[in-house]
Automatic annotation (TrEMBL):
Top-level division of the source organism's lineage: Eukaryota
PANTHER family: N(ALPHA)-ACETYLTRANSFERASE 15_16, ISOFORM A, N-TERMINAL ACETYLTRANSFERASE-RELATED
Any Gene Ontology CC annotation: NatA complex
Chain segments carrying region Disordered: 1-20, 622-658
InterPro entries: NatA_aux_su, TPR-like_helical_dom_sf, TPR_rpt
Organism: Maudiozyma exigua (Yeast)
Alphabetically ordered keywords of this record: Coiled coil, Repeat, TPR repeat
Composition bias, Basic and acidic residues: 622-638
SUPFAM superfamilies per UniProt: TPR-like (SSF48452)
Residues forming coiled coils: 505-539
Protein name listed in UniProt: N-terminal acetyltransferase
Length: 840
């Protein structure tokens, strides 16, 4: 019955359409789209297009198809529609529809073009200005966004959101006084009309207006007084009392009213006595930052006022120089915590280890050892175990792994049910390079509390560091849904668990290197081609090597995908924050968005992907340069590998189930074959990682080594020179990395180099102008020992510099290896093992 009813309606639609003109029918199809009746809309459009195919019908059909999930067909219809339009000369409705489609597919610049065309072609829909402003803000065109906000505000003056949006746009464009006037004008209009429900929004706009006034005032005393007066006026209406008091204190400091500022800081300390920042600012306001005697008196008084707070007890430990007094203060700070059994005691003291390395560790060691010797493990179990725990962390910090291990074993021996002790023991084993043992110990600790998500995540992380990916996924899957997959990998991608995905990517990369080494060794050993066991093992290793490298790239790309999604998610907030009246949160979001691609996790993924893509590029160059037929052999070997891989179909299908991260409709390239087979690895790396990073990163946080390596492979020697210059300004001319980059750049200017001639000349002139002390006249001298020059003139025991020299393959590989081994000889075993296994 339901089918008959569903089938009857299209006939009625078609019958009704017969007696209407084309435009009216199109508007009816548009209404069906707006009512989310996409199939009915397409049915009516098909009827219309039998008579006459117009850009309007094609565009709307494309939009309907897109929302039905038919994205390929939608793109085709939209393409046909645009091909029938001369420039942007189409109906206002058609342009509006195209703008909506482009926004849906995240082509924001094209969306702006079509929305603007809709207005230019006579659209009376003023809501388009709001959409325009949102999209212009998303792409960072705030000047155009201001014009759009103003037009929309003029059309809908009665809504507070439009006043707030206009003020924010004016503020972003540097028109601070106009922004203040806009907010003030609305305050006058709304005076006495603010309801209880609107009070929070009103308070946010008031404090935002004060923010603008404060920034606009700068150091002008008269303007600052006005800001202070405004702050006093709005104080009863403002909910953010901390923000208000902090602003007040800041103004007093700028005005030189240090006494008033100190009173405000004392109020802030009273409200939040655990905030270290307020104590430091109080010192500044009292003018005692350079007088340790007065500082000591100050903190003694504050300690009596706030006896249970950390800051007044901790801060004096950073400046007291007398060892006897310092030892007494340390005892008063540390021992009560050990007596109470505070697990974070070492974490609290650790900053002192970093700042005062020469004196703090030896004093603390004596204090805690003396205290431990007084404790009876049976009568005082809590002080005993936590003193052992502290000393184990202490010796780990000092890299005395044997003693660290002894003390943690004492703690475990006394109380074998304490999870924290297993965490610490695993950390010690990790630093000694025993990653498998560390993972096993942490798993033992995890089994003590199977409901603890933190220890579960730690266990997963240690398994991944030990390259035990399957076990890591198994443990992680205990806290995931696993509804439509054999493990939790898909769910972990869905919830964007970046820590897991980046660790897994790095583990896969290490496993790829290990498989590659084993394969090379096995091929070197195998002489009999008919040895079936060896042949089978070789096939397995070839598949593993390719699989691990592809999966590593896929995971790194997943991180990039998350951050692009974060960027796209900002789109809704350009209108949401205006409606909800949260201008300060909106400004914070914009500031965050401007640093999105410089976040540590993104940079980590980019660096990981760079290693693989740079290696792929270097390998492709080697294949091109081989003139002895080895290139043909490699190609033949590749075909053979593909043929042999067909016998591993069952294994591949099993691996596929374990590795799948997205539904097959979204991603069919589970093992990253398409990424591995790209002919332009540098271009893919640039578009997916480097370009976004390069737009946002500031010079002080820029990875100049990565810049240099990327531009060197692109043959852009002028940009290599720029990276060299920036690195030299930060680290000096004696730096090992500077020396390595300089030598590589000099050798790139040789006549035999494949780089562009003009690029060579630009680089040579730049080196001659800025770094004339370098032996540039030896560039064509084949007998000149560049490696020896590096050792004699730069800090040669710089691992990053030596790895850079190794990657270029311009120097004697054995000599570079020897230098690397000598450099890491004094480092911890963890780093030594990593370099030996995965670098050399």
């Amino acid at each position: 019955m339901s089918r008959r009813r569903g089938g009857a309606k299209p006939k009625q639609v078609a019958k009704a359409a017969a007696g209407k003109d084309h435009h009216t029918q199109f508007l009816e199809a548009l209404k069906l789209y707006e009512g989310k009746q996409y199939k009915k809309s397409i049915k009516l459009l098909d009827t219309l297009m039998k008579k006459h195919v117009t850009p309007d019908c094609l565009a709307l059909k494309g939009l309907d198809s897109y929302f039905l999930g038919e994205k390929t067909e939608a793109a085709d219809f939209v393409k046909q529609a645009i091909s029938k339009i001369e420039g942007t000369k189409a109906s206002a409705i058609c342009c509006h529809v195209l703008g909506i489609y482009m926004r849906s597919v995240k082509s924001y610049a094209d969306s702006i073009k079509w929305f603007q065309a809709s207005l230019d072609n006579g659209s009376t829909n003023k809501q388009i200005y709001r959409d325009l402003a949102t999209l212009q803000s998303q792409i960072g065109d705030f000047k155009a966004a201001l014009a759009s906000r103003k037009k929309y505000w003029e059309s809908f003056v009665g809504y507070r959101a439009n006043w707030t949006a206009l003020a924010i746009a004016q503020d972003i464009n540097g028109e601070r006084q106009q922004a203040i006037n806009t907010l003030s004008q609305f305050e006058k209009l709304a005076e006495g009309k603010i309801s209880e429900a609107e009070m929070y929004e009103h308070n946010e706009c008031l404090i935002y207006k004060n923010d603008i006034m404060y920034r606009n005032a700068g150091d002008n005393g008269e303007k600052l007084e006005k800001v202070l007066h405004h702050l006093d006026t709005i104080e009863p209406k403002v909910f953010d009392k901390f923000g208000l008091l902090e602003r007040k204190a800041s103004i007093f400091m700028k005005l030189g009213k240090v006494k008033e500022a100190s009173l405000v800081y004392r109020t802030l300390i009273k409200r939040n006595p655990d905030n270290f920042k307020y104590y430091k600012l109080l010192e500044v306001s009292l003018g005692v930052t350079t007088n340790n005697k007065l500082r000591k008196v100050l903190y003694e008084k504050l300690a009596t006022f706030y006896p249970r707070c950390e800051a007044p007890k901790f801060i004096p430990l950073t400046f007291i120089h007398d060892e006897t007094e310092l030892s007494k203060k340390l005892s008063e700070y540390i021992l009560p915590q050990l007596k109470r059994g505070v697990p974070a005691t070492f974490s609290n003291v650790k900053p002192l280890y970093l700042k005062r390395r020469n004196i703090i560790p030896k004093l603390v060691e004596k204090i805690v050892i003396d205290y431990l010797s007084e404790q009876d493990s049976k009568k005082q179990p809590i002080p005993y175990i936590w003193s052992c725990y502290y000393l184990s962390q202490h010796y780990l910090n000092l890299r005395d792994y044997q003693k660290a291990h002894e003390y943690v074993e004492k703690a475990i021996g006394h109380t074998p049910t304490m999870v924290e002790f297993y965490l610490l023991k695993a950390r010690i084993l990790k630093h000694t390079g025993e990653l498998d043992k560390a993972a096993a110990i942490l798993e033992e600790g995890r089994n003590l509390d199977l409901q603890d998500r933190f220890i579960n995540c730690k266990s997963v992380k240690y398994y991944l560091r030990a390259n035990q990916v399957d076990k890591a996924v198994e443990v992680a899957s205990l806290f995931t849904k696993n509804d439509d997959s054999v493990n939790g990998v898909k769910d972990l991608h869905l919830v964007e668990a970046s820590w897991f995905i980046s660790e897994q990517a790095e583990a896969y990369h290490r496993m790829h290197i290990s498989a590659q080494k084993k394969l090379e060794e096995l091929r070197a050993e195998t002489t009999d081609s008919e040895d079936e066991n060896k042949s089978s093992e070789i096939k397995e290793l070839e598949w593993s090597m390719e699989k691990y490298e592809g999966l590593s790239l896929k995971r790194f790309h997943a991180i990039s995908k998350f951050y692009k999604q974060f960027e796209d998610d900002q789109l809704d907030f350009h209108s949401y924050c205006m409606r909800k009246g949260t201008p300060r949160a909106y400004m914070e979001m914009l500031a965050w968005g401007n640093k999105l691609y410089t976040q540590p996790m993104y940079v980590r993924a980019m660096n990981g992907a760079a290693k693989i893509y740079f290696k792929m590029y270097d390998n492709s160059l080697k294949r091109k340069q081989d003139s002895d037929g080895s290139s043909k052999f490699a190609e033949g070997d590749k075909k053979k590998a593909k043929k042999e891989a067909s016998s591993l179909t069952k294994r591949k299908n099993e691996d596929r189930k374990k590795a799948i991260a997205y539904p097959e409709s979204e991603d069919k390239d589970v093992f990253g074959d398409e990424l591995l087979n790209t002919k332009e690895p540098l271009k893919i790396f640039d578009s997916n990682f480097y370009a976004d990073y390069n737009k946002q990163v500031q010079d002080y946080e820029r990875n100049n080594i990565l810049d240099f390596e990327f531009q060197y492979r692109n043959g852009k020697l002028a940009l290599c020179l720029g990276a060299l210059s920036k690195y030299e300004k930060k680290n000096g001319q004696k730096s090992g990395v500077f020396g390595a980059m300089a030598i590589i750049l000099i050798l790139a200017t040789r006549e035999s180099s494949t780089c562009d001639l003009i690029a060579k000349k630009v680089a040579t002139k730049g080196l001659e102008a800025d770094y004339s002390f370098l032996p540039l006249n030896e560039v064509e001298n084949d007998s000149f020992d560049w490696l020896n020059y590096f050792k004699e003139n730069f800090h040669s025991k710089d691992l990053n510099a030596l790895l850079l020299l190794k990657q270029t393959s311009l120097f004697d590989e054995d000599k570079v290896k020897e230098l690397i081994l000598d450099t890491i000889s004094q480092d911890e075993p963890l780093l030594q093992n990593y370099v030996l296994q995965y670098v050399l």
